Amino acid sequence: MADHPRFGPAGVPAMLRQMGAKLEDVPKLLRVEELDAFEYAAVRWGQKPQMRQEEAEKLGAEARRNDVLLSMHGSYYINLAGDAETVEASKRRLIACATAAKWMGAYVLVFHAGFYCGAGKTETYRKTVQAITEVAETLKAEGITNVSLVQRRWVGTANSAP
């Protein structure tokens, strides 16, 4: 974790993409702009990591070399309060993101847990806590202990904006 406030973008800035920068170039280019944090946006990921381990490790190495703190924003396609099939798919998405976060050395995986799906707050909370507990147990069993899970506090209806 950082010993001082860090600032940087969530996702690769459009300017860097237009320049044709590779993902591993991002930390160095951010430092040129006097930024020292980067949140990798895995927001459209499915149930398997959507990047190669080698690519993630290169990003992590460059981030450490340039003193850029890495975090990851997990898939938007997560609803830990949905039906059983949706919850299982959501857990696999979180595990995929946490796996890549470990590869790159991101210290935290931020995600939105889901929405009510017509259930009350108590039932939604119970289901969400159960699913997060199961994900945490799986991550521990797979040796992913250096990535914290942080749920952003947005639990709304299917039609409400975050």
Assign an overall shape: elongated
Tally of DSSP helical segments: 5
Percent of residues in β-strands:
15-25%
Largest sheet: 4 strands, parallel
Structural class: alpha/beta
The termini sit apart by 26 Å
Order of helices and strands: HHEHEHEHE
What does this structure look like?
The structure is a single chain. With 162 residues, the chain is of the alpha/beta class. The protein has 5 helices and 4 strands. It has a 4-stranded parallel sheet. Helix 5 (121-141) links the parallel strand 3 (108-115) and strand 4. Helix 3 packs across helix 4 and helix 4 packs across helix 5 (121-141). The radius of gyration is 16 Å and the shape is elongated. The relative contact order is 0.14.
Tags for this model:
about 160 residues, alpha/beta, four-stranded parallel β-sheet, 5 helices, 4 strands, about 40% helix
Draw up the topology in text.
Blueprint: H1 14-18, H2 26-32, E1 37-41, H3 53-65, E2 69-73, H4 84-104, E3 108-115, H5 121-141, E4 148-156
Parallel strand pairs: 1-2, 2-3, 3-4
Summarize the structure.
With 162 residues, this protein is α/β, with parallel strands linked by helices.
